[in-house]
Amino acid sequence: MNPSNETHQQQILPNVHNPLQFTIVLPHSDTNSNPNSSLSNPSNVNDLLTLGIPRKRRRGRPHDTLSSNQVYNLPPEFPNNHQTTQNSFGSNHFDRNPNIGSDQAAQVGVSDEIIVINKEATSEALIALTAGFPADVLTEEEIDAGVVSVVGGIEQVNYILIRNHIITKWRENVFNWVTKEMFLDVVPSHCSKLLDSAYNYLLSHGYINFGVSPLIKDKILAEANTKGNVIVIGAGLSGLAAARQLMTFGYKVTVLEGRKRPGGRVYTRKMEGGNKVAAADLGGSVLTGTHGNPLGILARQLSYPLHKIRDKCPLYRLDGTPVDSKTDTKVEIAFNQLLDKASKLRQLMGEVSQDVSLGAALETFWEVDNNSSNSEETSLFNWHLANLEYANAGLLSKLSLAFWDQDDPYDMGGDHCFLPGGNWRLVQALAENIPILYEKTVNSIRYSSDGVQVAVNGGQVFEGDIALCTVPLGVLKSGFIKFTPALPQRKLDGIKRLGFGLLNKVAMLFPNPFWGTDLDMFGHLSENPSTRGEFFLFYSYANVAGGPVLMALVAGEAARSFESMPPTDAVKRILRILRGIYSPQGIEVPEPIQTVCTRWGCDPFSLGSYSNVAVGSTGDDYDILAESVGDGKLFFAGEATTRRYPATMHGAFLSGLREAANIYHFDTNRALRGKIEKNPSKNAARELERREQVLELREVKGGDEMRLNYLIEKLGVKLIGRKGLGPGADDVISQIKAERSKSKPAVTVKSGTLKPKSAMKQKLVRKAKILRKNNNQSLPVKGVGGNDVEVKVGGGSVSGMTKLVVSESIPSVNMNVGEGLIGNFSSSASASDPPNVEGLGVGVASRDWDLVELDGEML
Length: 859
Description:
One of its GO terms (biological process) is chromatin organization. By secondary structure, the chain is an alpha+beta fold. It has 23 helices and 37 strands. 33% of the residues lie in helices and 15% in strands. The strands form 13 sheets. The protein has a 6-stranded mixed beta sheet, sandwiched between helices. Strands 14-7-6-18-27 form a 5-stranded parallel beta sheet, with helices on one face. It is globular.
């Protein structure tokens, strides 16, 4: 049955135990589980020091290995205990400042003005870490938003402490709406602007006060038409998250959904018959990671329990007998070693690895390393390949060797879980009171400076100020929706490069759980590599569905051929496998009461399951898909628009919150611009003129050097805060990135794991700092106008030196562009206000002199 044809009937799903307090429901037989662990509010800080990373290679069968855990080391500037004295501001003054190391104290230039909110700075940093914030630096998004006037200074340290404290206090009670006033007693008055900055950023970007608790839902305005009209295309997790957030901001929202139900690829089907009723997740089913997962926060707000998926996963041979545990372990170790070899291979190959598939590398290594003709070991190896294809919803022969696992460093830590009763319970709560129009299939989107027009089947046209498109990547690839004007070629190329794979399921409701309730999954081997993904893994939903439901997964090449397989044939094959396993044990396998087969590849509203990094693609393509077009009129969200969390339910949800924030900020800047144009004053007109000059950068060709030259010599400005440039900033940045990608390889290889270009750039800058510190020497630096600039380093790193002497004459400018005050950019600049040149600013106030010629590459 096609999931897209199901009606809006999930309100009558079976009721599952609903405790008053949020916990993770753990099987009694699992002695290694921690019953006190919490998804969004870990009770033990030490548990967060080691966050279990659910690597893609183990998503279906998450064994604990050395490579499946990532240890997070916190910097020394966040202690729990220290000696303090009270200062005149009411904040704590350090005899010896433990919140910052001696080297860092020298860099920021102030060692005794760091505030102390409480004595739990380390634990609060860990909580913020689970929300995606580094412990001791700002995120690029925070820098873009201009949350502090100078990046890298004492102000940044205080901002981070305040930010972490706000996040922690809300996570302690996610049922409530936190306000700035709640923190006035603990944040010193001289840091009130930092409190405003941190609170406003966290609120507008959806890090606090989001979700479905009654107190938070009350904040959605009854007459939400104070800011404009937004049309959201798609009622999946991303569309629902964005709609709720936008309504909280005061927007009038209309959601257009082609199906007869909300949820998109998250679909819980009610199964019933023979006095049995159960709920089966036919789409997104597993909450991958428990620390900081926003879907866990929703479950906590609704007092829904979670069921930890137990690691036990026995494998069975073709004849139904269990695989020997020693052989199983031996092949699994060998398989993980092959993945490690593939990682080393891509390091050696460099950018050439972008044109090689992961499957080709793994199968070649297996043929070379496997000297045995043991057919069982080969079948086990193929099972692991099928598991990997399940994790990526794609054929290994099409996955990029270079970037298939580029999102692994961002995986949520903690357990994998099921939500008893199905994920529809979250969808239902998110959709409540959201104006959703069902069976509205969008076929065209027209966008211009005047607004947007969205046409649906039947000729009806919806008009609005802004549109947010959340349709799956498969639909974008099909070209079914016509965009006018056409999407930029850059975005079209990204859509084409990214992969969009397929995973299908067979849900079966039985009279009884004959397979037992002591495990949550088991696997079955196949002797044919082309069918290795056919019913290779079974999930038991007996403990979470309200009835005895067994789910068979179909991955890889088998998932595509399954789309044309008659359901009766599928049931016969599955029963043959199950009876081969359980009949020899004297266990009778009955006929299923009801069976449902998915066809996600044929579903016109998805045309597949979830995204992956295909050969020729990189993580940058996720960023490209997320870029807005039409001068802030058309935005994009969905799991295929987040490079950190693609192919996950929480990634889709977070992308919706992200785009709600982007819409809000773009619209706010546009309103400010219109206000200035309508009510010009002398100063306002000058500021507007300067903005127009900055936007001229989009016309400058020839790469970063030419743009930097134009910026400094022609305009004489230093950018701070992308939002301050107005809606045209993204176009400028896109051109910069496009120009850079033409002239430099997309991958830089060093020892260790493969790093994307942006991460490698930061690594090289840090290396340059160390050299300067150790050698105390003058370094030649490439000048933006072709001349040499001499940077004299006297005692410490660039960001810590007391004087920065530049031999090239640059005019002194003190001006205000957008949101932030631009400091002096002169021929003699202090360390507290160094000039910013990295990537034409891109919202970076400046951490160091980043325009450095190192190993022949402009950083």
